[in-house]
Design brief:
Elements (H helix, E strand, L loop, with lengths): L21 H15 L6 H8 L3 H4 L6 H13 L11 H17 L2 H7 L7 H16 L4 H23 L6 H12 L7 H5 L1 H4 L4 H18 L5
Length: about 220
């Protein structure tokens, strides 16, 4: 007599589950992000993915915010090494552009990154790289320290703004474009004078200009306590 298909299996017959680790949890979170988006990266969803209870995950990750920060840090590891050629300014811009491009690939993560505070090795490596390039350019340490924060904020905000295209906000942009192009030179003379310039430029060119403007300011603006 053969066993019925729905006969429960003994726990002893089941393969042992891999031990939970922080690295394994983050890896599973990255996989869910790539497949389903950041909004699905929750403790409950990961518990299902790892065949465990949500309470077990809190031993390794305090909350969803820390989980998202850990995911961001993991993806920072996909950014390539610092370019070997070019001036320190050119290489600094390329690193920042690569960081922005990584966030472009994950729109929901870009928005989360505005408030996430990674503390993992990849984030530390990114900060070290930016500081080293600013130091190479002769930027005083205090200005470089504050400047790194400003540069990463700009890159993150740019990616988050770009991600709005995936949230159905095209109508808002169209309305703004129409308002700027049709601003009256009587009531808003300065807008009317540069309305085309306000909307001109390819995204890549505008991003490059933003970084260069910030780098120039960081280089020349002393820190005052």
């Amino acid at each position: 007599m053969t066993a019925r298909p729905d006969t429960p299996r003994s726990r002893r017959e089941r393969p042992a589950k891999p031990a939970l680790t922080r690295e394994g949890i983050v890896a599973a979170a990255v996989a869910v992000l790539r497949a389903e988006g950041l909004n699905k990266v929750t403790m409950r969803r990961l518990a299902q993915e790892l065949d465990t209870g949500p309470a077990s995950l809190y031993v390794y990750i305090r909350n969803t915010a820390e989980l998202h920060a850990a995911v961001l840090d993991e993806l920072l590891g996909t950014i390539g090494p610092v370019p070997a050629e070019g001036s320190w300014r050119e290489r600094l811009e390329r690193v920042l552009t690569a960081y922005t491009a990584m966030l472009y690939e994950h729109p929901s993560l870009a928005r989360s990154a505005l408030t996430a505070w990674p503390s993992g090795p990849h984030y530390l490596n990114l900060i070290e790289t930016l500081l080293a390039l600013l130091d190479e350019g002769g930027v005083p340490p205090a200005q470089a320290a504050w400047g790194v924060d400003l540069l990463l904020q700009q890159a993150t905000a740019t990616a988050a703004e770009h991600s709005a295209e995936d949230t159905g906000q095209d109508a808002d942009w169209d309305a703004l474009t129409h308002a700027l192009r049709n601003a009256s030179d009587r009531t808003h003379p300065h807008i009317a004078a540069v309305s085309d310039d306000l909307l001109s430029g390819a995204p890549e060119a505008r991003l490059s200009w933003r970084f260069q403007a910030l780098i120039n300011g960081i280089e020349r603006t002393a820190v005052v306590d």
